[in-house]
Amino acid sequence: MDLGFKGKVAFVTGCGSPIGFGRKICQVLAEEGCKIIGCDLNLEGTQETIKLVEEAGSEGIALKMDVTKKEDVEAAVKAGLARFGQIDVLINCAGASSSQHTKFVDMTEDQIDFDINVNLRGQMNVAKAILPHMMERRTGRIVNFTGGRGIPGLSIYGAAKAGIIEWTKSLAAEVAPYNIYVNVFGPGLSKTGLIKGQSPEFIEAVTRATKQKRLCTPDDVAPIVVFLASEKNSYMTGEFVHI
Questions:
Q1: Pick from 77, 165, 179, 182: most CB atoms within 10 A?
Q2: Distance of CA 37 to the CA centre of its chain
Q3: Contact in structure between 80 and 62 (CB atoms under 8 Å)
């Protein structure tokens, strides 16, 4: 199936990790003919992702960006537009926690602020920088990311990500008149950096609770996210898709 990405450009955050979802999403988008503006604090990792994009037959640019800093975000959006002239898709995949394996009662104010600023405000910062361009062109697809529900030591991370769900629903209603579709995706527990240090008992319990009896992988996630970001998704907006 041709998902209609030829000639399109996607702005993807959080694509510098070799084990994260962002890299695989970039690869699948590139295989569909989409150009990639890849952004992450890990510039070297993002450059590796863009090499994979080029190997898939597309083009890309790697940019170092901190989602919590509006000036970083605005500079990255400006650089992406200077390179490709348009942004058709936003994949808000960046996420991190400073409080992993720290009980809520032991968290510092700085840890709480970090988790909220990266995982809630960070996605908002990127969307706010890109939306005026999409609204002017009267077209766009946004996929935000949620997750971290019920994971010990990630309570504020999970709370921030939960806020993404309600924000997405309201934002989708606001921008629907501009032909912009906004959905939120929640992956299952995966072997990404966020579960490092979790007890074997916890991981085993989560694995047993899945119907497939295994953890989620980037290969499971990327095709769904890419569909949500495609024009083949011609009706669904403001929805929470969880696997």
A1: 182
A2: 13
A3: no
Contact 39, 66 (CB under 8 A): no
CB 147 within 8 A of CB 161: yes
Please, are residues 22 and 12 in contact by the beta-carbon 8 Å criterion? yes
141 contacts 233 by C-beta, under 8 angstroms: yes
Q: How far apart are CA 221 and CA 189, in angstroms?
A: 11
Q: How far is CA 50 from CA 11, 23, 128, 154, 180, in A?
A: 12, 9, 24, 30, 26
- Write out 108-146 in H/E/C secondary structure: CHHHHHHHHHHHHHHHHHHHHHHHHHHHHHCCEEEEEEC
pTM of the model: 0.95
Give the active site residue among 157, 178, 181, 235. 157
Q: Which two tokens stand for residue 152?
A: 């010990």
pLDDT in tens, 205-220: 878 888 888 989 999 9
The answer to whether 23 and 46 are in contact (CB under 8 A) is no
Q: What is the DSSP string of 183-237?
A: EEEEPPPBSSGGGTT--HHHHHHHHHHSSSSS-B-HHHHHHHHHHHTSTT--S--
Catalytic residue flag (residue 157)? yes
193 C-beta neighbours (distance < 10 Å), count: 14
Is-contact 91 229, C-beta < 8 A? yes
CA–CA distances in Å: residue 57 to residues 54, 60, 64, 80, 176: 5, 10, 23, 19, 32
**Tell me, what's the pLDDT at 100?**
72
Q: How far is CA 72 from CA 6, 57, 135, 168, in A?
A: 28, 28, 21, 23
Q: Which residues of the chain have pLDDT under 50?
A: none
